[in-house]
Write a structure and sequence with these properties.
Elements lengths: L1 E10 L2 E11 L3 E6 L6 H8 L7 E6 L2 E2 L4 H5 L2 E4 L11 H11 L4 H14 L15 H13 L5 E5 L7 H16 L3 E6 L2 H7 L2 E6 L2 E6 L1 H8 L4 H12 L5
Parallel strand pairs: 3-8, 3-9, 6-7, 7-8
Antiparallel strand pairs: 1-2, 1-4, 4-5, 9-10
Length: about 240
């Protein structure tokens, strides 16, 4: 489970986050939705401990990510925006490297790597160097890296960005599988239709604030629109212009 309580962060004169609070439950997919600059990536970066907030708290399960970042990292798998792989390593070696960073080694690690290669349909390119991979191939290997240590919480920052239709559908199926195995999945996007396709709960950010949150049906009722895209627009407008 992921809990965010009053996170705030400024970059100079810009208030990127203004007391963000929400939770993401186990066995559910929670969508973090908002326009560019809403604070999605800043929130996620605070959760996976690469950015320290100015105030507020965040927990991965029972672990305070600010006070104990190393323990928090062991409980999360991260697919960041802008996938980066070592270009001179094979897909298999990239996954192995992340496994070792999480303390895995030996036959158990190799077995887990092979399991992920089959699960994510990576076998046709797993032993080629990552240089020259398509965006979809990069994303699959990066997802395997995120899952290699079998974390109970998974953070996906705009995972379908730049993917074709078939790869996007395959990735959505994998995300739904994570939910079915009881994992907490936090899924960031700026596209309402994408979030609506997989998410049980939606948190809409705007100008560094939570503009709305709830199930798709709750949000439809709250804003009086059947179309979730109209819900998104209405929620953003309810916040108004960003503040400094």
């Amino acid at each position: 489970m992921i809990v965010v309580d009053g996170l705030a962060k400024r970059f100079g004169n810009v208030a990127a986050l203004r007391s963000i609070s929400f939770s993401a439950a186990n066995g559910q997919i929670t969508g973090l939705l908002g326009p560019n600059g809403a604070g999605k990536s800043t929130t996620l970066r605070a959760l996976y401990t690469v950015l320290k907030p100015d105030s507020g708290r965040a927990h991965i399960d029972t672990i305070n990510v600010i006070e104990n970042p190393l323990a928090a990292r062991s409980r999360i798998g991260i697919l960041p925006h802008g996938v980066g792989l070592s270009q001179h390593l094979t897909g298999r070696a990239n996954i192995r490297y992340f496994g070792r960073l999480q303390g895995l080694n030996g036959p158990s690690l190799e077995e887990r790597i092979e399991q992920l290669i089959q699960q994510l349909d990576i076998h046709s390119f797993a032993d080629r160097k990552a240089k020259g991979y398509s965006q979809g191939q990069k994303t699959k290997v990066a997802l395997a890296q995120a899952l290699v240590h079998e974390p109970p919480n998974v953070i996906l920052d705009e995972p379908t960005n730049g993917l074709d239709v078939m790869t996007t559908r395959a990735l959505r199926e994998e995300i739904l599988t994570l939910k079915q195995t009881g994992k907490c999945v936090l899924f960031s996007s700026h596209v309402m239709q994408e979030v609506a396709a997989v998410c049980d709960e939606i948190v809409i950010l705007a100008a560094g604030l939570v503009a709305a949150c709830g199930t798709p049906d709750q949000l439809r009722e709250q804003f009086g629109h059947d179309d979730l895209e109209e819900v998104f627009v209405a929620a953003i407008r309810s916040v108004g212009e960003p503040q400094t």
